[in-house]
């Protein structure tokens, strides 16, 4: 079966093509096409994984193009790492496909939605199967494009359109680095093949400066894609997309591609201690800052978005401290429990008529049994409670930070773990316990269609009246006109089955790398790779991490369930910090001021040069010659002589500069 | 060797095209000067395709006429680019001229002058002699001046023509002046002889040789609109009839690159190291200025002018970094990609701006609802111009980028890729209008004529196919000894 691994991305591609051409006629039946395709992909992935476990890496390539003397190949490769990734991607994609059938049921563009999902699954699987970094880059861009399409799926919401653009353009900044890095590698090694690049690094064919430079450039790509500081700003906004998309793309798969990239290029990173340090600190800083922002957000999806950024930071931190298996293990477990949490959030949002503000929720425990229990499992898993999946993988990351990092990294990781437990349980208690605050009577926003349509959105924006979007009322996404006046109740099996599947995985996924079973995943992933010993923590570390998680949960319990500490206790104590967090450290504003405005200003500057400065020069020099100018040009438009003169002046300047610079006068 | 001994059959395509252009002219006279003449348009397209076939057939006997007019793979590929480009421009024009508001244009003349422009460009890329080259250049240029002013009752159009003729004349003067230095030094107008003499002459007459080079660079730079010789482009592009804008930004520009390669690689190839850096600096400035200014534009035709300036900057990168066959590979591949994505975009632009009567960016509002196929095709063209994977534009740009890195001009490669990212912003402006804005109240579903459909579909197919299977043409290019005659 491993020879037929190419089938895995092809099924979703076929689904995409079918829906592209016949989707209009299928309407909501489009979902079955997508589900069937992904089910097939998943089955093949499982078969491939089993074959890979007992066997060897399989690689198939054909020559694509020749650039100069180097042939560039295209094909596919099944390694241990990507066999694992195939399972993660196809499984999460499959459950998201199933979940969306109900979630997007009332949207009359549901076939378009499924076609995009198909295209995304194809691209993501293509990325994973790529045997060389150029092919990876091509699919890398393609998943970015799909993310753009899906974030902007409800493009008639101005926020969604803006978020889609922001997501795409921000990640492009990282892609500049990635492309540059891989072209330099190509220039050094004559190949994009992972194997050739590994060998070149190991045999010292590339000098140290270039190794560091290319590793950092490639890492820049990962920073953009995996929403690491300082390029993380696009991910929270990307929550404007439909929730199943957030689960699939912005939690489990695409955003993990940056981590995967560092994973596949690991020998390059290992060869440069500078690069490793940068990676570790970027991860730690991201994990910490994102977690702080998650503490105060009130939009259920934004809390999860910052949590995702934070957890991706954990993975990057692990990779940066030589915890290759720890980082990738966490990638896998996180994919399951974060997809679970997002789909759980989707289930909640769907039940409370598309509100997203946790202040309007509460008391859902008794109303939505399956959603509540599965969400709790997800929350326990991400908090790192024994014996759920997150416990095992997070413990390895802590071990990695402690043993190969330094005290600072370890401390940051511990604090972040504490915050993780706290904000997750803040979210859980606010949403599922207490009284339901979203009833039509007591909800102050109940009659405001804007809040209904768009969800109450995040706090930073909730204070501003959404006048800018008022005229868009007519475009309320159809899915959101769902039975308006009923109290929330559990959703149908299409939505709960995926939750159950993912919850089971959130419980058991950690078993694949159990310490007392000899770390089977570690053996699988590191076989044949020269990565050195993987760090493992002692028992006290496991207990410490449990204590940290437990105290985070306890604090949340005291504040949001028991009420022993007032909810706004910290906000009142340190209003400045609270505000800073609510406004996301003002990074959006800073970026606008530092990058966006100057870019436009430079454009205007050049344009003004074209138009007016040049005009001024001409007026100065050319007044005496304007008699000829008056004969035709100037009467209609004063620009003609200007252009002529500038062309000539330009010519003279170029000539003069060239001569001065190159010294041709001598 | 007298003129009669020469192998005139090498010139068959040009002779046939000249005859067909005259035939089009004559038929136009016979059918009265006014009115719609779609059949002349079709005849013109047919003429170009026949010529294209002849170009391929003739190439099997590569050689030259007295080392003045050469037939080699380089000439063949550029001629095919020119002929296909002009054929597509004529298909776009047929739709354009059908409209009531463009009834003032004398259609027969328009088409035959288009054919003469193609003829001039063909002679230009086939010449290995400064005089022939200049004659080809002038046939192309003068035809272009006339075409820019074809809407003679429209003030922007006539203004565009006047600006173009005056500034174009200046550029020609630059070129001639530069050529005169070479002639003075070598006593020859043959690029072959000049190329042999230049390295030695450079030692002794550095100043004069570089003067000659820089004057020609300024003149050619005008034709391909690179900074600082670009100022005419936005005004002329905006004023000229839209299909003529398409012609100027694609056919005229690529033909200009054709002669730049001939003259610089053959005539000055021996002193490549001396001028590569100058070209690199100009390429950098062109990419920066073109992309940044495009950010501020809201008129579609002006925006495309600045985008075209930026694209010329990308095309100039291999001229500065990789000399010889590989460099030509890169330029030719990107030229093919540029031809298709730009003409495809201009076909859509023509349709939309003519339909809405404005060339403001807002004319694209809600295009996806008015004409989904056009909107999707346009997106592919824009994405390709911006250089995203799975399009011809990506492969072309990546190839050039590899060359710049391999040629040890990392800074130029970085400028190239960073300015490409900036270009996303303005290309996204289109996409946002098309997909994320509602159509303006009076805009109905957009009718697409057969000729337009052809152009859009062909451009789309080639842009995507070359993005996925670039080997289809790159493998052929790799076998070429481009300037085989030498």
What does it look like?
The complex is a heterodimer of chains A (666) and B (486). Chain A is mainly α and 666 residues long. Chain A folds into four domains: 1-131; 137-264, no CATH class; 272-443 and 452-458 and 497-515 and 539-582, no CATH class; 588-662, no CATH class. Chain A has helices spanning 7-26, 30-54, 80-103, 110-129, 133-151, 158-189, 194-202, 208-225, 234-237, 243-252, 257-264, 266-270, 273-294, 300-320, 324-351, 369-383, 389-404, 407-432, 449-454, 459-462, 493-508, 520-526, 539-562, 569-573, 575-582, 587-622, 626-631, 633-636, 639-662; strands at 58-67, 70-78. In chain A, strand 1 and strand 2 (70-78) form a beta hairpin. In chain A, helix 3 (80-103) runs parallel beside helix 15. Residues 441-485 and 624-637 of chain A have low confidence and may be disordered. Chain B is built from 19 helices and two strands. Chain B has helices at 12-30, 38-59, 73-97, 107-126, 130-148, 155-186, 191-204, 206-223, 232-239, 242-267, 272-295, 300-321, 325-356, 367-370, 372-386, 392-406, 410-436, 450-468, 471-479, and strands at 63-65, 69-71. By secondary structure, chain B is mainly alpha-helical. Chain B has one domain (8-479).
How are the elements arranged and paired?
The complex is a heterodimer of chains A (666) and B (486).
Chain A: H1 7-26, H2 30-54, E1 58-67, E2 70-78, H3 80-103, H4 110-129, H5 133-151, H6 158-189, H7 194-202, H8 208-225, H9 234-237, H10 243-252, H11 257-264, H12 266-270, H13 273-294, H14 300-320, H15 324-351, H16 369-383, H17 389-404, H18 407-432, H19 449-454, H20 459-462, H21 493-508, H22 520-526, H23 539-562, H24 569-573, H25 575-582, H26 587-622, H27 626-631, H28 633-636, H29 639-662
Antiparallel strand pairs in A: 1-2
Chain B: H1 12-30, H2 38-59, E1 63-65, E2 69-71, H3 73-97, H4 107-126, H5 130-148, H6 155-186, H7 191-204, H8 206-223, H9 232-239, H10 242-267, H11 272-295, H12 300-321, H13 325-356, H14 367-370, H15 372-386, H16 392-406, H17 410-436, H18 450-468, H19 471-479
Antiparallel strand pairs in B: 1-2
Helix pairs in contact in B: 1-2, 1-4, 2-3, 2-4, 3-4, 3-10, 3-13, 3-18, 4-5, 4-10, 5-6, 5-10, 6-7, 6-8, 6-9, 7-8, 7-10, 8-10, 9-10, 9-12, 10-12, 10-13, 11-12, 11-17, 12-13, 12-16, 12-17, 13-15, 13-16, 13-18, 13-19, 15-17, 15-18, 16-17, 16-18
């Amino acid at each position: 079966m491993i020879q037929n691994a190419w089938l895995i991305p092809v099924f979703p591609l076929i689904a995409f093509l079918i829906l592209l051409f016949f989707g209009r006629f299928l309407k909501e039946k489009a979902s079955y096409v997508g589900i069937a395709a992904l089910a097939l992909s998943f089955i093949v992935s499982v078969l491939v994984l089993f074959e890979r476990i007992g066997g060897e890496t399989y690689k198939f390539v054909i020559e694509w193009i020749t650039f100069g003397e180097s042939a560039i190949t295209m094909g596919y490769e099944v390694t241990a790492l990507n066999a694992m990734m195939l399972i993660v991607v196809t499984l999460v994609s499959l459950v998201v496909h199933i979940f969306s059938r109900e979630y997007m049921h009332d949207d009359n563009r549901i076939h378009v939605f499924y076609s995009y999902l198909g295209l995304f699954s194809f691209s993501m699987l293509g990325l994973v199967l790529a045997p060389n970094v150029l092919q990876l880059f091509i699919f890398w861009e393609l998943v970015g494009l799909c993310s753009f399409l899906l974030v902007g799926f409800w493009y008639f919401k101005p926020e969604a359109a803006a978020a889609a653009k922001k997501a795409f353009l921000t990640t492009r900044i990282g892609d500049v680095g990635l492309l540059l890095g891989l072209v330099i590698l190509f220039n050094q090694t004559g190949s994009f093949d992972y194997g050739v690049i590994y060998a070149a690094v190991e045999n010292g064919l590339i000098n140290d400066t270039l190794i560091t430079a290319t590793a950092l450039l490639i890492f820049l790509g990962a920073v953009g894609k995996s929403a690491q500081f300082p390029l993380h700003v696009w991910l929270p906004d990307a929550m404007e997309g439909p929730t199943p998309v957030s689960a699939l793309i912005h939690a489990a798969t695409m955003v993990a591609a940056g981590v995967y990239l560092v994973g596949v290029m690991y020998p390059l990173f290992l060869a440069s201690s500078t690069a490793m340090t940068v990676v570790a600190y970027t991860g730690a800083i991201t994990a910490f800052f994102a977690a702080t922002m998650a503490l105060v957000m009130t939009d259920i999806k934004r809390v999860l978005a910052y949590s995702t950024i934070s957890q991706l930071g954990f993975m990057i931190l692990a990779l940066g401290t030589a915890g290759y298996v720890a980082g990738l293990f966490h990638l896998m477990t996180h994919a399951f429990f974060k997809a679970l949490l997002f789909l759980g959030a989707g289930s909640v949002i769907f039940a409370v008529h598309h509100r997203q503000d946790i202040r309007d929720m509460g008391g859902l425990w008794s109303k939505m049994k399956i959603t509540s229990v599965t969400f709790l499992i997800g929350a326990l898993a991400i908090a790192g409670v024994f014996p759920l999946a997150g416990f095992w993988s997070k413990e390895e990351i802590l071990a990695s930070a402690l043993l190969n990092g330094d005290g600072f990294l370890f401390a940051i990781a511990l604090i972040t773990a504490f915050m993780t437990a706290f904000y997750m349980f803040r979210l859980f208690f606010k949403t599922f316990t207490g009284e339901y605050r979203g009833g039509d009577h007591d909800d102050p926003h109940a009659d405001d269609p804007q809040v209904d349509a768009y969800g109450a959105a995040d706090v930073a924006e909730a204070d501003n009246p959404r006048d800018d979007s008022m005229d868009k009322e007519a475009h309320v996404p159809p899915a959101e006109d769902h039975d308006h006046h009923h109290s929330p109740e559990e959703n149908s099996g299409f939505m709960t089955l995926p939750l159950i599947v993912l919850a089971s995985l959130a419980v058991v996924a950690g078993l694949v790398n159990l310490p007392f079973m000899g770390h089977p995943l570690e053996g699988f992933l590191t076989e044949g790779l020269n990565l050195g010993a993987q760090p493992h923590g002692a028992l006290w570390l496991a207990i410490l991490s449990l204590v940290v998680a437990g105290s985070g949960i306890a604090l949340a319990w005291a504040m949001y369930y028991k009420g022993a500490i007032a909810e706004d206790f910290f906000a009142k104590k340190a209003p400045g910090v609270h505000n800073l967090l609510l406004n996301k450290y003002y990074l959006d504003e800073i970026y606008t001021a530092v990058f966006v405005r100057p870019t436009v200003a430079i454009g205007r500057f050049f344009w003004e040069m074209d138009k007016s400065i040049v005009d001024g020069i001409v007026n100065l020099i050319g007044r005496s010659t304007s008699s000829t100018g008056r004969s035709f040009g100037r009467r209609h438009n004063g620009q003609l002589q200007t252009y002529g003169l500038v062309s000539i002046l330009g010519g003279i300047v170029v000539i003069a500069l060239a001569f001065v610079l190159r010294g041709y006068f001598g | 060797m007298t003129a009669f001994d020469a192998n005139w059959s090498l010139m068959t395509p040009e002779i046939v095209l000249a005859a067909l252009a005259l035939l089009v002219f004559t038929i136009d006279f016979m059918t009265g000067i006014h009115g719609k003449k779609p059949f002349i348009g079709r005849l013109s397209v047919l003429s170009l395709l026949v010529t294209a076939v002849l170009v391929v057939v003739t190439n099997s006997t590569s050689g030259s006429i007295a080392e003045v007019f050469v037939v080699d793979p380089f000439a063949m590929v550029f001629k095919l680019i020119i002929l296909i480009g002009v054929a597509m421009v004529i298909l776009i024009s047929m739709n354009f001229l059908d409209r009531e508001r463009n009834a003032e244009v004398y259609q027969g003349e328009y088409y035959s002058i288009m054919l003469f422009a193609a003829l001039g460009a063909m002679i230009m890329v086939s010449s290995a002699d400064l005089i022939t080259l200049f004659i080809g250049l002038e046939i192309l240029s003068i035809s272009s001046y006339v075409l820019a002013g074809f809407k003679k009752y429209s003030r922007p159009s006539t203004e565009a023509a006047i600006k173009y003729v005056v500034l174009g004349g200046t550029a020609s003067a630059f070129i001639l002046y530069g050529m005169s230095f070479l002639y003075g030094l070598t006593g020859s107008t043959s690029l072959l002889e000049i190329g042999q003499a230049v390295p030695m002459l450079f030692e002794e007459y550095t100043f004069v040789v570089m003067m000659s080079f820089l004057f020609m660079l300024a003149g050619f730079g005008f034709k391909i609109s690179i900074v600082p010789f670009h100022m005419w482009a936005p005004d002329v592009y905006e004023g000229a009839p839209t299909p003529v804008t398409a012609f100027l930004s694609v056919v005229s520009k690529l033909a200009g690159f054709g002669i730049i390669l001939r003259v610089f690689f053959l005539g000055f190839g021996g002193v490549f190291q001396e001028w590569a850096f100058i070209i690199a600096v100009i390429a950098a400035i062109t990419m920066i200025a073109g992309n940044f200014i495009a950010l501020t534009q809201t008129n579609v035709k002006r925006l495309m002018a600045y985008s075209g300036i930026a694209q010329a900057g990308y095309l100039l990168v291999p001229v500065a970094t990789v000399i010889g066959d590989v460099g030509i590979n890169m330029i030719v591949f990107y030229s093919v990609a540029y031809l298709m994505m730009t003409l495809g975009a201009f076909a859509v632009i023509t349709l939309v701006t003519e339909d809405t009567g404005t060339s403001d960016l807002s004319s694209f509002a809600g295009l996806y609802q008015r004409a989904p196929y056009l909107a999707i095709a346009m997106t592919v063209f824009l994405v390709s111009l911006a250089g995203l994977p799975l399009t011809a534009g990506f492969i072309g740009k990546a190839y050039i980028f590899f060359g710049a890195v391999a040629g040890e001009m990392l800074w130029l490669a970085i400028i190239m890729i960073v300015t490409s990212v900036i270009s996303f912003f303005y290309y996204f402006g289109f996409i946002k209008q098309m997909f994320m804005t509602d159509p303006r109240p009076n805009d109905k579903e957009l009718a697409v004529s057969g000729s337009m459909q052809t152009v859009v579909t062909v451009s789309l197919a080639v842009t995507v196919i070359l993005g996925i299977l670039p080997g289809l043409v790159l493998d052929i290019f790799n076998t070429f000894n481009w300037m085989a005659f030498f």
